[in-house]
Description:
The structure is a homodimer of 190-residue chains. The first copy, chain A, is built from five helices and eleven strands; from the N terminus they run αβββαβαββββαβαββ. Chain A has helices at 2-11, 32-45, 62-72, 131-142, 161-167; strands at 13-15, 19-21, 29-30, 53-57, 76-82, 91-98, 103-110, 119-127, 146-156, 172-182, 185-188. In chain A, α2 crosses α3. The interface between A and B is medium-sized, with 31 and 31 residues.
Amino acid sequence: MKKMQEMILAEGKVLPGGILKVGSFLNQKIDTAFLAEMAEEIARLYGGCGVNKILTVESSGIAIAAAVGIVMKVPVVFAKKHRSSNVDGETYGADVHSFTHGTDYRMVVSRDYIGPEDRVLLVDDFLANGQALNGLIKIVEQAGAELVGCAIAIEKCFQGGGDALREKGIRVESLGMIESMTDDSITFRV
Amino acid sequence: MKKMQEMILAEGKVLPGGILKVGSFLNQKIDTAFLAEMAEEIARLYGGCGVNKILTVESSGIAIAAAVGIVMKVPVVFAKKHRSSNVDGETYGADVHSFTHGTDYRMVVSRDYIGPEDRVLLVDDFLANGQALNGLIKIVEQAGAELVGCAIAIEKCFQGGGDALREKGIRVESLGMIESMTDDSITFRV
């Protein structure tokens, strides 16, 4: 998506440690006109695939997931992050390590909100190592639902999470794909 | 909003401790068709008020704030919740006590994302004691921005937060207003 590349180049800031800061349009502050454009593009990419549920994880994935859900006219479910890994019988869950924050958490979804009848599209703002997506995929598997694919705003290809999923045969569509990044340059995969 | 009353009656569950569970359509699982209707109604209520920014707090307020932002064509900013109350020079912040979770947190917003030029609409999914809204109002004040009003999906009137704000002259619009609630009945304020 050409506009995503333009937005990243215009607004993104590269911070030490391979962090791309896009808080001015994608998270913390959300450019809602662009959010609507992203949602339309994701709905176009996954149109005709029979998606009947969108799954994301709190909190920065919620805005884009909700926008996609409105366009695709399907419900959105978001996993909650818990600090403990307590397991109860009422939830699906997966333990996730966040490299960004250096923390572990458990993502959980009520069993009421996803099930074998669901064809699920995973939506998130960022894809780096793929830890969050892998957690969501475990939840889809536990629910006996079908994974249609993943839709991501920005993929940091150099961290390998997206390609590892593609190698497993999972469809991953990222609106902006960053092949490499230095303090003063960003190279996109096209 | 009549539809909100219908949704609460059809889908809501009253739990011990005055908790209303609406996870099946408002948070955790989001009915996106209804989300779009809520956004249209809030945009109608605050149309012509010169709102140029929407402010909410992670994470369950993000979906409705994003939907309103798309309809009103204004950016959405969400405050992040931090566990510590460390203050740095780059953020506005307010310490908040959550009665729901029995915890304290600090909500913070980067100074880059809100300022004196902003006319701010606060959007959230729930209004009970008003702790979260009061925190957001402090941030609006710190930024030197103007508070236009508040738009809430569900207000639990019996917890008093909304009326306390109205007594201060702040406009508060809630799509569903619960006057009282028992294990087997819900009474709306109309």
